[in-house]
Amino acid sequence: MRLIFDIRFRAWLYQVVAVLGVILTGWYLYSNVRANLQAHNIATGFDYLNRESGLLLSESVIDFQPSDTYARALVAGILNTIHVSIVSVIFATLIGTVVGVARLSKNPLLARLTMLYVEALRNAPLLLQLFLWHAVIISVLPGPRDAVELLPSVFISNSGLVIPSLQWEAGHRWMLFALAVGLILAWQVRKRLLAARVESGNQRLIWPHLLLLTFAPVLIAYLFFHPDFVFDIAEKGRFRITGGMQLKPEFTVLAFGLSTTASAFIAEIVRAGIMTIRKGQSEAAFALGLTRGQTMRLVILPQAVRVIIPPLTNTYLSLVKNSSLAIAIGFPDVVMVTNSTINMTGQGIEGIALLMLIYLSLSITISLFMNWYNAHVALKER
Prior knowledge:
6% strand, four-stranded antiparallel sheet, 8 strands, alpha+beta
């Protein structure tokens, strides 16, 4: 009986009871659904993933043919979702940071223009923006025969944007991996040099050594694999554009809509983070001879990022989940592939369960990474 009055025991007991309750409820629902489906002779299980899909995807990160399985189609949809989400996160962060800093500008015209940008995009539904930009591309831009050449071998038309592309080989992948290794090595060495500089009072930071650490692995990979750098150049023919890499309108519209909408929210997050830094920080930086740009880059933003990261995580999560609106403009993301699979197989419960699991996994991955980064940049009390 004494255990009943133990706070720690009761805390563990409540958690165990709650977990068991969730498990029993889930098992009851699963058994009930399975029995009803069997009573109506409706197929259950995930065996359909190994059947030939017959799906035709307009674009895919990996090679996909209609003769491939539903499982490969699902993987292609997941990779398409991740691809457009990564591109959108990068551009949204860059645009949002610039707009957020510009909102605090002393130039009234720049401050009001950026405020108009933020308010317009934050208050316009993303779905309507996707419809608008898709209609603009399809209706306003000329056809492939009359494509506009923006730059040499760069064409834009209502079929999308065509740019020169590198013919990838296995050696190029190893060079890219070597570059990632070099960046990690340079980052670690830079941290140690900065710590040593603070302790010794030496103001020199040897950048040539950091550049050597960054690109030396790339040079070694090039000398070892000898990849050829052959570019596929786009050319405008009589009826269509041949060669190059084509960014189709659906991908372009989705990435643009997600980036601009998220950038408006990120701009407000950045502005609020900067405003939390006391004015004395800027005055001290000016007294040391730093320019306004150096003060913002070296003093203000590094401190503000500790306030910016938590709400920024929510924005990234919303961006990834908003990518499901791709189905409205025909981009073959994981939602569109899942819906097509459900329509062709009739196994909706399995499809929806997989879709929920996929988005849950993506959200948890983003949260874990952002929490790790937040802990990395957090102030550590001595």
